[in-house]
Write a structure and sequence with these properties.
five-stranded parallel beta sheet, 2 domains, 17 helices, disordered C terminus, 433 residues, Rossmann fold, globular, disordered N terminus, 15 strands, alpha/beta, eight-stranded mixed beta sheet
């Protein structure tokens, strides 16, 4: 059944599929008051209608999924077919009867744009539709999002912050001196974060201010809470609270990172070692995930175990790679060698970063990149080869395999054909994990 304005109008078209009379009535009441909404209501189950559902010209699709019971498997299979057919646009919002962690993970893998649980408040439905329809920039008619690099420590003191900062600097300068891709470094260690200290910046993120109402955080407020390095690098960091062990509402982190991931071309996450309710979503949304280890046997064991745990926990999520930091090869000493790393870590070993403590210490004390202290240093060269260049090769290979332009060109141009699911929508799905 159709409802709304002429298909050729410029109104926002929302297509809703449901077999639930109560949800049908709620949707009608929610959208009927706005002349700017072209509402298309389709009756029936997803299993029966998915293959023939017409989403031509749709801005948002809302599908009522009965993920449980005898028809659950058929419904989820139908949703999978629909997502494969839809591709990057329009975004699809799934509405389910109840929250289930396993179903949520499957929805993440299908790349649904958002996930709501009945009963759905009208305001929540409107906000979800607005967020997925307008939350991502559009290039050449396709939604885009940032290319995301995530650094996760295998052990404490592994040097994650230094690697995250240098990676962000290299990405910022990847377009040459004239064109600098918009790049943001996000310190997600709200208790012991050191990014602002390393760059000699004032941390301006006030989580306590936005926690009561995460929805009021918009681009304008985000700009106020951003710190900028002299290089042009944007930094999101909160003041250290070492004596306060608290877990923020996942919706706060969700909203914050949603804005970051949709307003910058490159985003680098400096992750805490502690696993929070939003950690799964950040890792799932990452294009490149690096676990940072020290050059010790216990650290390598931790890194190997973490790789295994992430693969088991996230399934077909990102492929974690291990970087061994502060590597120093001694010819006549019984120290660990590259062959030891390869034997222990196997295919997950990305490479080793050489040790130069004096260089890193001076850069930290001055609040500048390593190249400013010593141009062409071995650490920066290794980061470029292991992290930045390998990511570019991976993107090119994916482009050749799919016949699509590479995501996040390292030439500094706009992002094209990025994955449709916003990182923070994944965060929202996994907040109960």
């Amino acid at each position: 059944m159709r409802s709304g304005r002429d298909p050729k109008s410029k109104a926002t078209r929302v297509v809703v599929l449901t077999a639930d009379p109560a949800f049908d009535a709620s949707v009608r009441a929610t959208f009927s008051a706005s002349s700017a909404i072209d509402l298309v209501l389709v009756g029936g189950t997803l299993a029966a209608q998915a293959d023939n559902l017409d989403l031509t010209g749709a801005t948002v699709a809302v599908v009522d999924v009965d993920a449980h019971g005898a028809q659950g498997a058929h419904e989820m299979a139908a949703l999978s077919r629909l997502m494969s057919r839809v591709g990057a646009w329009p975004p699809v919002i799934a509405v389910t009867q109840s929250f289930d962690e396993n179903v949520a993970r499957v929805l993440m893998q299908m790349r649904v744009a958002d996930f709501l649980v009945k009963p759905v408040a009208p305001l929540d439905l409107v906000r979800a539709c607005a967020r997925v329809a307008q939350g991502q920039p559009v290039v050449d008619g396709k939604p885009t999002e940032a290319e995301i690099y995530t650094f996760l420590p295998a052990v404490g003191g592994a040097g994650v912050t230094t690697l995250a900062i240098q990676t962000a600097m290299q990405l910022l300068n990847s377009g040459g001196p004239r064109v600098k891709p918009s790049t943001c470094l996000v310190d997600l260690d709200f208790q012991h974060g050191a990014v602002a200290d390393y760059l000699d910046l004032e941390p301006r993120l006030n989580l306590a201010e936005i926690e009561p109402r995460p929805d009021r955080l918009d681009r304008q407020l985000l700009e106020i809470m951003l710190s900028y390095h002299a290089s042009g690098l944007a930094v999101v960091a909160a003041p250290n609270r070492p004596a306060e062990m608290r877990s923020f509402d996942p919706d706060v982190v969700t909203r914050l990172l949603d804005l970051v991931s949709t307003n910058f071309e490159y985003v680098v996450f400096d992750m805490p070692r502690t696993w929070f309710s939003w950690t799964d979503g950040v890792l799932l949304g990452s294009n490149h995930l690096f676990i940072v280890s020290e050059t010790t046997v216990p650290a390598l064991r931790h890194a190997k175990n973490l790789v295994t745990a992430i693969k088991e926990r996230l399934g077909d999520g990102p492929d974690p790679k291990v970087i061994v930091n502060r590597f120093q090869q001694r010819v006549f000493a019984a120290s660990l060698r590259h062959s030891d790393f390869e034997q222990t870590l196997g295919a997950s070993f990305a490479g080793a970063i050489p040790n130069d403590y004096n260089l890193v210490r001076e850069a930290i004390d001055r609040g500048v990149p390593l190249d400013e202290v010593r141009p062409g240093n071995k650490i920066a060269s290794a980061i470029k080869k292991i992290i930045v260049d390998s990511a570019a090769v991976k993107a090119e290979a994916a482009a050749i395999a799919t016949g699509k332009p590479p995501v996040g060109s390292f030439g500094g141009g706009p992002l094209v054909d990025s994955k449709p699911l916003s990182l923070m929508q994944k965060l929202k799905l996994s907040r109960a994990s």
